[in-house]
């Protein structure tokens, strides 16, 4: 949770800008606050502005624009090195910090005009290792669905609908939690979700999804629903009769993965998104652009990680070589 009273005024102004003008999601704004706050703490050490030995206790609300004017590109590089050496931060983590600092300093120079020189202007993004996404096989996906369809689970219909939507639609956790019943168009078999950056997009629902949702709606509580979190319209409710939380969904997926005999250290909610995308590409002959639209990716390069092929496909390609029998 962001505590504005702990921030310098220029940081709070930046957060207001990202919320109202850039229309960033609350999670993104929270990440910006965390990243910049950490950077300012580092600067207080580097510029000898504090005697506090515990990094987590260094206050930053007294950090001034005058002090920020001293920042150079070397200082940002030193911050990234500090993250690597002291926190063993991955390249992806440092890349996020770089992105936050770029937006932050662009605001201070171009929008707020509090700085004349942008120290992050030539800041490069750390090179990321390209890794193939982990995903469930078709067989394991069916096993997960079969295990979730368990009459002994009092929330069977809800949990089965959740797993079904993840495996068929490839939606993000926040998107699933945010689904409202009025967002679903049952006649056209589609629904609207709010993705990254508060961007709205349409997700089409196949027969399995429509069936799972309808069966859950038959048993979904209709009375005594709490007014918090717009829970009255929420598709998925917790046992406390309010919109289900991210953590509860993660717990459900983790539990069902374990019951299916699948490694929960290897698979997670996000891996179900990878699974949906991979299965659609491998078995559905889905165009990469259509997959990009479905997943809500801004750049096609993000979607291209799903164009990987498995070992059986590679073996088959070799066997199909016209010289194979020579």
What is the C-alpha radius of gyration, as a whole number of Å?
24 Å
Q: Multimeric state of these chains?
A: single chain
The neighbouring-strand order within the major sheet is 1-2-3
CATH third-level topology of the largest domain: hpI Integrase, Chain A
Number of helices: 14
Low-confidence stretches: none
What is the β-strand count?
3
Strand proportion, as a percent range, falls in: under 5%
Mean pLDDT across the residues is: 90
Q: How would you spell out the order of helices and strands? A: HHHHHHHHEEEHHHHHH
Cα distance, first to last residue? 67 Å
| Coarse morphology | elongated
Please state the structural category: mainly alpha
When the domains are counted, the total is 2
Largest sheet: 3 strands, antiparallel
CATH H level of the largest domain: which superfamily? Intergrase catalytic core
Examine the secondary-structure arrangement and name the CATH architecture of the largest domain.
Orthogonal Bundle
CATH C-level class of the largest domain is: Mainly Alpha
Helicity level: 40-55%
Q: What's the layout of helices and strands?
A:
Layout: H1 9-20, H2 26-46, H3 65-68, H4 73-87, H5 91-111, H6 138-148, H7 156-169, H8 173-177, E1 184-185, E2 190-194, E3 200-204, H9 207-219, H10 246-259, H11 269-284, H12 288-295, H13 300-303, H14 311-319
Antiparallel strand pairs: 1-2, 2-3
Helix pairs in contact: 1-2, 2-4, 2-5, 6-7, 7-9, 7-11
Commentary on this structure:
The protein has 326 residues and is mainly alpha-helical. It has 2 domains: 4-111, DNA polymerase, domain 1; 138-312, hpI Integrase, Chain A (Orthogonal Bundle). The protein has helices spanning 9-20, 26-46, 65-68, 73-87, 91-111, 138-148, 156-169, 173-177, 207-219, 246-259, 269-284, 288-295, 300-303, 311-319; strands at 184-185, 190-194, 200-204. A 3-stranded antiparallel sheet has the order 1-2-3. Helix 2 crosses helix 4 (73-87) and helix 7 (156-169) packs across helix 11. The radius of gyration is 24 Å and the shape is elongated. The model has no long low-confidence stretch (mean pLDDT 90).
């Amino acid at each position: 949770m962001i505590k504005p009273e702990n921030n310098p005024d220029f940081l709070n102004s930046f957060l207001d800008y990202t919320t109202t003008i850039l229309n960033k999601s609350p999670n993104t704004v929270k990440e910006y606050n965390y990243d910049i706050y950490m950077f300012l703490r580092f600067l207080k050490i580097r510029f000898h502005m504090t005697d506090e030995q515990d990094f987590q206790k260094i206050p930053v609300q007294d950090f001034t624009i005058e002090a920020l004017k001293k920042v150079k590109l070397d200082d940002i590089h030193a911050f990234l090195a500090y993250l690597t050496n002291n926190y063993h931060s991955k390249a992806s983590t440092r890349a996020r910090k770089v992105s936050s600092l770029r937006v932050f300093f662009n605001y201070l120079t171009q929008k707020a005009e509090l700085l004349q020189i942008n120290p992050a202007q030539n800041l490069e993004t750390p090179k990321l290792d390209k890794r193939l996404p982990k995903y469930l096989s078709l067989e394991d996906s069916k096993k997960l669905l079969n295990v979730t369809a368990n009459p002994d689970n009092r929330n069977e219909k809800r949990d089965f609908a959740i797993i079904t939507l993840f495996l068929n639609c490839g939606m993000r956790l926040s998107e699933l939690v945010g689904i409202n019943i009025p967002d679903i168009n049952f006649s056209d078999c589609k629904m609207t979700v709010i993705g990254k950056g508060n961007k709205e997009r349409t997700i089409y629902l196949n027969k399995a999804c429509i069936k799972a949702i309808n069966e859950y709606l038959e048993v979904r509580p209709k009375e005594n629903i709490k007014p918090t979190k717009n829970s009255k319209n929420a598709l998925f409710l917790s046992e406390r009769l309010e919109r289900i939380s991210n953590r509860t969904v993660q717990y459900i997926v983790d539990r069902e993965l374990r019951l299916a005999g699948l490694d929960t250290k290897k698979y997670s909610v996000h891996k179900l998104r990878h699974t949906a995308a991979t299965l659609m590409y491998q078995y559905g002959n889905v165009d990469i652009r259509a997959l990009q639209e479905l997943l809500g990716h801004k750049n096609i390069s993000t979607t291209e990680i799903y164009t990987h092929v498995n070992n059986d496909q590679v073996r088959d390609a070799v066997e199909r070589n016209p010289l194979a029998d020579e």
